[in-house]
């Protein structure tokens, strides 16, 4: 295909996209008006499924399949990072030297770590009831573990963070979401359909499959962030080790 032909194909595609976008915008409700068709339907569906947090109802019920795609993107990125940053035969890891941490920072880090971890778990567990959920709570929970790196040192983080278990949990969280979706097929409904008992509104057991899918995402996100940071930190140690060897040679 010539350059001119490629430009024509690009121009036709852009014009078609612009036309579809303009047509879609003409059907949008007026800004600041009282007519919100999508929001009204989402709230109505959340109440019918006894999910107090409408956002979680949208993420893990109305469009649970899209959320599976988002989770899979994170899982694939972690897998790619592990493969690309794996230690090769010619790489040598140098044990990090302990660094003196100010006493105030050490005390503050040890105090905040369990509180931050508890907040992350709370956000995950209450995702169907209040703002937050597996994605947000997973990041908070994973970040809390790395307060050890800031307040103590890297070896302390390594002792507290068995990387192999987190890699296993990352895959388990992804698999749990996929298998929970199959529950809908087993009952004769659609994949990822909300087929479990809906429970009592505004309780931890409400929402049917929503809290379970939310927990699966929380496990996957927490483990994924821990694994990502672990490989990035390990790579930094290897690069720093190479610099030190080069300077002493």
UniProtKB/TrEMBL annotation:
Keywords annotated in UniProt: Cell membrane, Membrane, Signal, Transmembrane, Transmembrane helix
Query: Which membrane topology term applies here?
Result: Multi-pass membrane protein
Locations listed in the record: Cell membrane
Q: State a single Pfam family of this protein.
A: MnhB
Bilayer-spanning residue ranges: 72-88, 108-129, 135-154, 175-193, 213-233
Q: Which residues form the signal peptide?
A: 1-24
The family line of this record is: Belongs to the CPA3 antiporters (TC 2.A.63) subunit B family.
Top-rank taxon: Bacteria
Species per Swiss-Prot/TrEMBL record = Streptomyces roseoverticillatus
Q: What residue stretches are annotated with the Na+/H+ antiporter MnhB subunit-related protein domain? A: 105-226
The protein depicted here goes by the name MnhB domain-containing protein
Q: What InterPro entries does the record tag this protein with?
A: CPA3_antiporter_subunitB (IPR050622), MnhB (IPR007182)
